[in-house]
Amino acid sequence: MDMKDSIIHEKLQWNADMENKLNRFPIVMHSHQWLKGTDYHYHPGLEIHITHDGTGTMVVGKQIWLQYPRSVLVFRGMVPHQMISKSSYKRTVISINFGEDDSHTLPSLHRLIDFGWIPEASCLSFTLTPKQFQQLEDMCKTLWHELKVREIGWERMALSHTLELTVFLERSLGDKQTATLSPQANGKVTDLVQFCSDYVCQSLGEDLSLKAVSKRFAVSEEYLTRSFTKEMGISFYQYVLLQRVAEGKRLLREAPDVSITEIAYMIGFPSSSHFSKHFKTLTGETPSAFRHKIFEPQTGQ
Prior knowledge:
Shape: globular
CATH architecture of the largest domain: Sandwich
Number of strands: 11
C-alpha cells in the first residue's frame, strides 16, 4: 500500500462542490473554520492551507506534513490531499482557479497570474514567523471582506488581494526569516528517501525500526532520520506509523474475517493494544469501532 493511493480514508473523492464554486468565481475562501480532519480528495486549481490553532497531519500526494499554528501549505488541488486530526483545528483555506489559458475568466490579466513557482506533484510548506503570519492574516481578512460584502468592484479587489497574498508567499521562498520551508520545491526526493519509503510500504510486517532500516541501506541512523524528516516533512517513526495504520484500515475494511489481533501482527504491531492505541490517535476511533461502523447496517436513513 502506498501513501499516494490511500492514507486514512477508504477512497479518493472528487470535490464537486469546490469545482462548482470555482466555476462561479475563481477565488473561494473558507476563513477560520474549526474542523476535525477532511476526506481524501482533490479538486481544480490551487490551494493555500493556513493553520491558526490546533494540530494535525496534512497528507499531500506522498508527502506528510505536521501542521500547527503558523503553518502554511501551498499546492495544486489536483494532488490528492487530506487533513488528519484527532481533535478540532482552526484553518483558513483559499482555493484559486484562473484556468490554463487566456480564454478563462479575466483573460486580459492572465499574463500577470503566474503560479509556476508552485510544484506540480507535491507542495510547498512554510512555518512563518509571528510577524509574517500576522501580515498573512491581515491579507486574508481583507480578502474575506471583499468576498463576503461584495461592494462595487469586489471581483477586481478580490483578484488584487489574492495576487498580493500569493506574491507574499512566493517572496517568502527566499526570505531567510521564514522558519521552515520544504527543500523539495521540485517535488523530488533523494534516492535514499525514495527507496526507504518504498521499502516501508512493502514491508510493514517486518522490523522497521530505525536501526534495522538504516542498516539495510548502509547509512547511519542519524543520517537516515535527518534526511527523511528534511525531505518528507515527518519523522521516519511517524511515517512508519501512518503507513501501518493506513494498511490496518484497509484490512479492517476489506478482510472482515481477519481478527483485529491478526491484522495487528500482519502490519508489524506487537499486539492488538498497540495497534488500537495508534489507530485511535490518528483516526479518533478504535479499530473495532471503525469496523463496526462499516459493517453494521445503517438505520434512520
